[in-house]
Design a protein that fits this description.
With 233 residues, this protein is of the alpha/beta class. The chain has one domain: Purple Acid Phosphatase, chain A, domain 2, CATH 3.60.21. Helices cover 30% and strands 22% of the residues. The chain has a 6-stranded mixed sheet. Strand 3, helix 3 and strand 4 form a beta-alpha-beta unit. The longest helix has 24 residues. The protein is globular. The termini are close together.
Length: 233
């Protein structure tokens, strides 16, 4: 029962938004599926940390979610900045149930326990939030992270955070999010959102203020789900 993570699938099986036009994304759905099926067992769990589908409405996600549901393992989905289809948790849960997507759950204002890991997370927001509206969003995201973290803590285990936006980028910090990670002694933080070789060079990875930072965008990890923790032998 291992735990994996990947972000930024950017699926468009039901929308006219092909990613293959971008460098490095040729045949990415096939590559992702092959890598996934090689690495993931039915008893494993995969966190998908945002930017999942290009669909604009929840009902237009059927093809993308059918693909995800067909892959091995349990999946925990998080919101990214391009997930315009995202809705209330109750409506998403109803959509999943109505379509028989029984391997998919939502990580939003909640926590999960997988093996020895206490899983929590939220979308996050910009590291250079200067406008009043941006500051409101950061405050809301910090609140969601705390709510998710509280539930995860109650389940026990090693506190592990998943975000869509990086908490540190190009030497700038999203202080509200970063402070929560540091104050709660989070061991590892996984994030996506960053694409391309140049941008990836500005994304901080490795230890920062005691938190290990991991970039797990699809193209950065070559469309290969990243192992967070092996299950018991």
């Amino acid at each position: 029962m291992a735990l994996f993570v990947i972000a930024d699938l950017h699926l468009s099986l039901g929308a006219d938004k092909p990613m293959d036009v971008f460098r490095g994304w040729q045949d990415y759905v096939q590559r992702l599926e092959e890598n996934w099926r090689t690495a993931i067992a039915p008893e494993d769990t995969v966190v998908i940390a945002g930017d999942i589908s290009w669909a604009m409405k929840l009902e237009d996600c059927v093809k993308d979610f059918s693909f995800i549901n067909s892959l091995p393992g349990q999946k925990l989905l998080m919101k990214g900045n391009h997930d315009y289809w995202w809705n209330t948790r109750s409506k998403i849960d109803q959509f999943l149930s109505a379509n028989g997507f029984d391997t998919i759950r939502i990580l939003h204002n909640c926590g999960y326990r997988v093996g020895d890991r206490a899983i929590c997370g939220t979308r996050g927001w910009l590291y250079n939030s200067e406008t009043e509206e941006d500051r409101k969003v950061v405050s809301r995201e910090a609140g969601r992270l705390l709510a998710s973290m509280a539930e995860a803590k109650a389940l026990g285990g090693q506190l592990t955070v998943f975000l869509h936006y990086p908490p540190v980028y190009g030497g700038m910090e999203c202080r509200e999010i970063l402070d929560i990670l540091v104050e709660n002694q989070v061991s590892d933080c996984y994030f996506g959102h960053i694409h391309g070789q140049y941008a990836a060079q500005k994304a901080l990875t490795g230890s920062y203020k005691g938190v290990r930072m991991h970039l797990i965008s699809c193209d950065y990890v070559n469309f290969q789900p990243v192992l967070v923790e092996n299950g018991p032998n």
